[in-house]
Amino acid sequence: MPSKRISLYYNKHKDVFVAIYAAMICFLTYAVVYAFRKPFTVGTYEKQAPFLGLHFKDALVISQVLGYMLSKFFGIKFISELKRVGRGKIILLLIGIAWLSLLFFAILPSPWNITFMFINGFPLGMIWGIIFSYVEGRKATDFIGASLAVSFIFSSGLVKSIAKSLMIDFHITEMWIPFVTGLVFIIPLFILVYLLEKIPPPSEEDIVLKVTRKPLNKQERKEFFTSFRPGLILLIIIYVFLTVFRDIRDNFAADIWKDLGFGNQPSVFTNTEIPITILVLILISSMILVRNNRKAFMITHFIIIAGFLIAGLSSLLFVMHCLSPFMWMTLVGLGLYIGYIPFNCVLFDRMIATFQSACNYGFLMYLADSFGYLGSVGVIVMKTVFNVNLKWTIIYSNGVIYLSIIGIALTSFAIIYFNKKYKNLFG
User: Fold this and answer.
1) How many angstroms separate the CA atoms of 285 and 259, rounded?
2) Which DSSP letter does residue 203 get?
3) 336 and 311 Cβ atoms separated by less than 8 Å
4) CA-based Rg of the chain, rounded to a whole angstrom?
5) How confident is the chain (427 residues) per 10-residue block, as mean pLDDT?
6) Where are the domains of the chain?
7) Which segments of 171-217 does DSSP mark as H helices, in order?
8) Is the whole model's pTM more than 0.90, yes or no?
9) Which CATH code for domain 12-422?
């Protein structure tokens, strides 16, 4: 009875199959979401007139990131209070709004179309929290969450390569490329959201190990933040630095590659991001092997420090002309993502489990994300307002060196705080 043996084998290893299924679907779903967010960044928009003294592309990036940032502040309430029904329909509605805004961006003349990048960013900012709500609070959340988190490393490169190829091979204009790239991914989106809805809820064993995750009201959010205020502030500051430099690399990769002499090579985006994706996925998902939540929480801090070291040292070597441009972009991306990704899948999940607190990951992640994107907007605006004429390559390489020094120090302080907090609560 082959079918019976298969059924018995599945029931015996159900948790493994669910984890692999959830990881694949979350990875692919969020990868598709990037097709509605990042394609415009492959353009340089050199022929477009400046807007309020801003280079047109800078204005687009600021407009979208402003929408994305405000979405994160709104998401502190929306995602933390999210119910477990109707999530798939919410995803489709939000992406539909984002895609429609790209159509208006293509149709309307500049500078009026800049507004629609803001409209595009706002709904997309809530998608990550909705997707992660399907998989948090499980034994395998480290692995599943790592798969979800690294998807935007891979998808950022994939989407940009596809968008650049559409521009070069099919002569799609810079204004239409965001909408057309979204069109390529619209059918896969519907299929993946359907499959996302089929992910089973956490098992009883998951709940025992990782604590029940529940929606939080305003008072509950305030109480949790107050209990861990110093540590959370440290982690948020660290995350702001990581978000700023990750976002610069993401939004201005085309400009940086052009400065480095790779402007007409679409494959360069995926050639750097694929190895980064694989390495980060292996590293972060291996945290599933650490069952002790407190130990995993502390190890995650040391992983973040390692990320800062890789990013800082590779940038220092590049500035000293001891590292090739291609290798620098790969290593600095690897280091930043090693520091950045744990926030998006492991750090807060293990923190909740370590301190046995009634909370959910969406609240903490959106709290950090809101200030992270505020920092991204601030850096881009400051570069323009103060008329800094340095290239992004120079700003980025030197900035990452200082970022790494500060990041290592702040992460060390966070380790000291949370160790002391745990001892005070549990002895």
Assistant:
1) 35
2) P
3) yes
4) 21
5) 60 79 93 90 84 83 89 92 89 97 94 94 94 87 84 79 87 92 94 95 79 82 92 95 82 73 66 82 87 93 96 93 87 91 89 86 90 83 65 81 94 96 88
6) 12-422
7) 177-184, 186-196, 204-210
8) no
9) 1.20.1250.20
